[in-house]
Design brief:
Associates with the 50S ribosomal subunit. Keywords: GTP-binding, Nucleotide-binding, Repeat, Ribosome biogenesis. This is GTPase Der. The chain has 459 residues and is of the alpha/beta class. It has 13 helices and 15 strands. The strands form three sheets. A six-stranded mixed sheet has the order 2-3-1-4-5-6, with helices on both faces. The chain has a six-stranded mixed sheet with strand order 8-9-7-10-11-12, sandwiched between helices. Strands 13-14-15 form a three-stranded mixed sheet. Strand 13 and strand 14 form a beta hairpin. The longest helix is centred in the middle third of the chain and has 16 residues. The termini are far apart.
């Protein structure tokens, strides 16, 4: 486990910019508008060889506990408990505020070591803020610029005494993983859907704690948040690792007009790319809508394994008819992958959550499956015998053999002649046969056609 460093400060002092600087990529959403970050975000950072986990937190605001800013502050307070070091960020150009002093007083009472960063300190405009920061009583402040990378060496020197003894041992070498080894790795499971479908509530229920910010307000989640978790399979008792990924709600593109929401939706799409299995969460009180099919199609186009889960099942009306209606609509609307797993769950009661995670592991196995070439071509020959390819215009299409080029998602290459004349319907026939006979049910399959290059090959 890497030592953990948490970033704390009031809104708009540059915490997320610092987070992005330390992990080396723009992972957290950044905007001039205060309060962009709402949930804790974790990232692996390395500073001059010093490795640690960095935690971005919501801006600290002095509001009532039941309000959205108050619930955000509670998340930040909870995150300090597991930290090895806290980075307290203040704004050099704005100077100290009463809220900075309140945060400083809270941090002084904590046993966690605190490093004071005075951000936006580049140029003469920030000199006064650096001098003023001494009054917080947290030691020598570090003049810093998260945007320009100024002060990184000073930050390294301040972190070194705390983090150097906690550095993990490096393996002598790393072997490249084969398909079987990947199945032993943590399952990357993303939860997507429209706003207010209950994605964050579902993850909190799975974890058994209020890890993610929830509430009646639509669009609370902005950043895609990854939470590492261990799941005990009730059928076998085996403990399996899961990386749960919460995402922002995805509305119709025409309804997304604010810059922050556009950024959040783009971040959710990146989370789909990162995931292995994607759970599309529906709201049982609203049924299946066109936007749900749009999201599902996007997941399949990206080659990810897909599960559909109907949330709020405990308050669903006409449950049997609702389930069958959604099943029929999915089979019609997602013709490219029929039979996508459909489960009924409840984030409030916990119904179906173990079945949901188990389905994620099962569909990942199909998504990662590789069929031996000999077995694949035996099936291929049988499929051609049962239904030979057509001969459009009297020109015979010759399909010679097939090979599996990749997994995750499974991809195949068919070799033959005159393949430009092969109709899409016959290609679908082959793909459907693979699903039925080779264990690729309900996962996206890629098939490419490649003509033989041998000039002496007979037609």
């Amino acid at each position: 486990m890497l030592p953990q460093v948490i970033i704390i400060g009031r809104p708009n002092v540059g915490k997320s910019t610092l987070f992005n600087r330390l992990i080396g990529k723009k992972l957290a959403l950044v905007d001039d508008q205060p309060g962009v970050t709402r949930d804790r975000r974790f990232g692996d950072a390395e500073l001059l060889g010093l490795k640690f986990q960095i935690v971005d937190t919501a801006g600290w605001e002095d509001e009532e506990a039941e309000t959205l800013p108050g619930r955000m502050r509670k998340q930040t307070e909870a995150s300090l408990e597991s930290a090895d070091v806290a980075l307290f960020v203040v704004d050099a150009r704005a100077g100290l505020t009463p809220l900075d002093e309140e945060i400083g007083q809270w941090l002084r009472a904590s046993p966690v070591p605190v490093i004071l960063l005075v951000n936006k300190a580049e140029g003469r405009a920030g000199e006064g803020g650096v001098l003023e920061a001494y009054s917080l009583g947290l030691g020598d402040p570090i003049p810093f610029s998260a945007e320009h990378g100024i002060g990184m060496s000073d930050l390294f020197e301040s972190l070194l005494p705390y983090l150097d003894p906690l550095q993990p041992e490096e393996p002598e070498f790393e072997e490249e993983m084969d398909d079987e080894s990947r199945l032993l790795q943590p399952l990357k499971l993303a939860i997507v859907g429209r706003p207010n479908a209950g994605k964050s509530t579902l993850i909190n229920r799975i974890l058994g704690e209020d890890r993610l910010l929830t509430g009646p307000e639509a669009g609370i989640t902005r950043d895609s948040i990854t939470v590492n978790w261990e799941w005990t399979d009730p059928a076998t008792g085996n403990v399996r690792e899961v990386h749960l990924i919460d995402t922002a709600g995805m509305r119709k593109r025409a309804n997304v007009v604010e810059k922050l929401e556009r950024m959040a939706v783009a971040d959710a799409k990146l989370a789909i790319d990162f995931a292995e299995v994607v759970v599309l969460l529906l709201d049982a009180t609203r049924g299946l809508e066109h936007q749900d099919l749009t999201i599902a199609s996007k997941v399949l186009e990206e080659g990810r394994a897909l599960i559909i889960a109907i949330n709020k099942w405990d308050v669903a009306e006409g449950a049997s008819g609702l389930f069958n209606g959604i099943r029929a609509a999915l089979d019609e609307g997602l013709a490219q992958v029929r039979g996508v797993p459909l489960l009924a769950v409840s984030a409030r009661t916990g119904k179906g959550l173990d079945e949901l995670v188990a389905a994620g592991f099962a569909i990942r196995e199909a998504w990662s499956k590789r069929v031996p070439t000999a077995a694949l071509n035996r099936w291929f020959d049988d499929a051609l015998s049962a239904n030979p390819p057509p001969a459009p215009g009297g020109k015979r299409i010759k399909l010679r053999y097939i090979t599996q080029a990749k997994t995750r998602p499974p991809g195949f290459v068919v070799f033959g002649t005159r393949l430009d004349l092969l109709p899409e319907s016959y290609k679908r026939y082959l793909i459907n046969g693979m699903r039925k006979n080779l264990g690729f049910e309900s996962v996206p399959i890629r098939m490419n056609l490649r003509s033989a290059k041998n000039p002496f090959a007979k037609d």
